[in-house]
Amino acid sequence: xxxxxxxxxxxxxxxxxxxxxxxxxxxxxxxxxxxxxxxxxxxxxxxxxxxxxxxxxxxxxxxxxxxxxxxxxxxxxxxxxxxxx
Length: 85
Description:
By secondary structure, the chain is an alpha+beta fold. The protein has helices at 44-47, 68-84; strands spanning 4-10, 14-19, 24-28, 51-52, 58-59, 65-66. It has a single domain (4-84), classed as NE0471 N-terminal domain-like (2-Layer Sandwich), CATH 3.30.2020. The protein is 25% helix and 28% strand. β5 (58-59) and β6 (65-66) form a beta hairpin.
């Protein structure tokens, strides 16, 4: 299974992600911001403190995390929508 090897926070709650299989993607995490654990990410300085965790997912200092399975699922959904357009 692919893992995140690099993450770069971008504007508008998007993360530029590089996977160990060579894939790159931009992940929009705005839908997650309604969950209580992600609310601190509304502070842009805190949002930018994202890092790759030991499992190849993403995490923030407050314990909020995004597993690589969810990241890959978002990529699959985006590709499916692009294929139907």
